[in-house]
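By way of example, what follows is a protein record of this kind.
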Amino acid sequence: MSFQDTAVRGDQPLIPRPERTPDALRAACAVVAPRLLAAYDRAKDAALAEAMTEDSLRPVHACLRHWATLIEVERHPGTAQAYRHAEYMARVATTPEEAHGHLTAAADIYRAAAEAVRAG
């Protein structure tokens, strides 16, 4: 399944896909999801601290992959709305089965966005 298959039909990106660098992702976040900037900064700082502790860049790469995926979702307003709606519905679900269905929908959107980022 491609990101276009999961994305809302006619859902054009607000901005071009940013490079997968800390500064480019932060700048994109400021445009498409400014409400997430503080969370981005905390995650980046935590990844850098973990990288120093582990003497490995793995935490930084994982953080950048995750945020590139979230920015990919947020670049497409309709897709971002569907993703947030699925997450919200999972939180307010009254049965585990209902929550599972909504979490599956959110996960499908996230996975498709991650694949779009990987494919470049």
Summary: Residues 16 and 102 are 28 Å apart (CA to CA). The first helix runs from residue 3 to 6. The chain has a mean pLDDT of 93. The helical segments are 3-6, 22-32, 37-54, 58-75, 77-92, 96-119.
